[in-house]
Automatic annotation (TrEMBL):
Domain spans labelled Alpha-D-phosphohexomutase C-terminal: 389-450
Name listed for the protein in its UniProt record: Phosphoglucosamine mutase
Pfam families recorded: PGM_PMM_I (PF02878), PGM_PMM_II (PF02879), PGM_PMM_III (PF02880), PGM_PMM_IV (PF00408)
Domain of life: Bacteria
Residue span(s) of domain Alpha-D-phosphohexomutase alpha/beta/alpha: 7-131, 162-260, 274-371
Family of the protein in this entry: Belongs to the phosphohexose mutase family.
Keyword flag Metal-binding: yes
GO cellular component terms, A-Z: cytosol
């Protein structure tokens, strides 16, 4: 697009006031609505300051195309996906830029099954959008006549529906018996109200911080260890069994042990995978950038692992193809088909508590017993128009390596790997390197960085 927007199957996002403006958002919403076979749309959002601007713009676009809008308010992204199914809607929109900084916002777009759109579906929306820019008659957007304008109704059952679906997929009795003490950081995001309710349903005693949806994010919103100092201190001083941190739309989870140690977000999918495979053997699907510990754990259970390209849509497609019992991404996203094909931080919390309850061990003891790798995650800023050349030049320099080029460049060695790819959510190139030792990970990371040449 000739606007400063980042477009991927994970959504259409940009900086508010630059790529994300009321005009752009409204036209994108109308273009999306034009592609729907059934014009009932579920609408939810996270808590960013630009929420109301974007919400009203989306409503204008949907109403103008004759949609019936089911407004479920501030809620996690997986709540939107679940309610698309529940309401038999033609699609859904979550207004959220997920882990991006507060000055970003985005539209996450879902189909009639509550799943992210395919590449072809997204391309069709963008074609309609561009046609509407080039023609006075608004091109391919199908506007409704006055008598057929859309209507909005509010739906207040979302939290109950979402929580009940998760509880049906857990051993609730086992978890409730343990009466866990949990510290929670919701980053003042979409999980601020629903997550404490969910934890109380599991008979947990909770102390929650940053649970005011009207306030700004108290720290960088990505749920990575460096951003969890406040939660770590709370857990360490309060003798909790665990600490959990969500991102602004509550689809990703990070964990703090009872000793106040913030774990890599990779641990969320690792722990969830163990919890599921203990109950039911089956295939596991993760993306190309997820820790190799998943392969070791699945092998211990005699289960296969399949890897997909980055992005929830790609993981879900592979999960369905291989009939996976669990899947997700190393960024903290856990997808449990028994609940829904969506990344869901509350599902991850439930599975981790179930595993803790069943094992009878402290969280730190569970983590210490797992295969451990050292994983470096860094990025370099790179303009979108330069990414392709940078990766092509790097691939040429890595001819002697065993490569997987389905999504960027992944170097695969006997006991280590590195993945270099274009970010789908930021103007950046992501670089990941994992090895059994910290030294090995650093050497592999530096090997990559030394070969990267930024195009002119």
């Amino acid at each position: 697009m000739d606007l400063p927007l980042i477009v991927s199957t994970s959504g259409i996002r940009g900086i508010v006031g630059e790529g994300i403006t009321p005009e752009v958002v409204s036209r994108l919403a109308a273009s999306y609505a034009t592609t729907l076979r059934h014009r009932r749309v579920v609408l939810g959002s996270d808590t960013r300051p630009s929420r109301e601007m974007c919400r009203h713009a989306v409503l204008a676009g949907l109403i103008s195309t004759g949609c019936e809008i089911i407004d479920i308010g501030i809620c996690p992204t997986p709540s939107v996906q679940i309610m698309v199914d529940k309401c038999e809607a033609g699609g859904g929109i979550a207004i959220t830029a997920s882990h991006n900084p507060v000055h970003w916002n985005a539209l996450k777009l879902f189909n009639e099954n509550g799943l992210f759109l395919s590449h072809n579906q997204l391309e069709r929306i963008l074609n309609i959008y561009h046609q509407s820019l080039s023609r006075v008659t608004e091109g391919g957007i199908k506007r409704a006549s006055f008598s057929r304008l859309g209507k909005v109704r509010e739906e207040h059952s979302t939290f109950d529906v979402h929580i009940e679906k998760i509880l049906q997929g857990l051993n609730v009795g086992l978890i409730r018996k343990k009466k866990f003490r949990i510290a929670l950081d919701c980053v003042n995001g979409a999980g601020s109200i629903i997550t404490p309710i969910f934890l109380r349903e599991l008979n947990c005693t909770i102390t929650a911080i940053n649970t005011n949806p009207r306030e700004d994010f108290p720290h960088p919103p990505e749920p990575s260890p460096k951003n969890l100092q406040q939660l770590s201190s709370l857990v360490r001083e309060g003798r909790f069994d665990a600490g959990f941190a969500q991102d602004p739309d509550a689809d990703r989870l990070a964990i703090v042990t009872e000793g106040g140690i913030a774990l890599s977000e990779e641990c969320s999918i690792v722990l969830a995978t163990i919890a599921v495979l203990e109950e039911k053997r089956g295939a596991v699907v993760v993306n190309l950038s997820t820790t190799r510990a998943i392969d070791d754990i699945a092998a211990a259970f005699g289960c296969p692992v399949f890897r997909s390209r980055i992005g929830e849509r790609n993981v879900v497609t592979a999960m369905k193809r291989h009939r996976a019992v669990i899947g997700g991404e190393g960024s903290g996203g856990v997808i449990y088909p028994r609940v829904h094909y969506a990344r869901d931080s509350m599902v991850a919390i439930g599975l981790i508590l179930q595993h803790m309850a069943g094992s009878g061990r402290k969280l730190s003891e569970i983590v210490a017993s797992h295969p451990r790798y050292h994983l470096i995650k860094q990025y370099i800023l790179c303009a979108p128009e330069k990414k392709e050349k940078l990766l092509a030049d790097l691939k040429e320099q890595l001819k002697g390596e065993r490569l997987d080029v389905r999504d960027g460049i992944k170097i695969i060695r006997k006991d280590s790997w590195a993945h270099i790819r274009s970010s789908k959510t930021e103007p950046a190139i992501r670089i990941l390197a994992e090895a059994p030792t910290k030294r090995g990970a650093n050497e592999l990371f530096n090997f990559i960085v030394d070969k990267i040449e930024m195009p002119d």
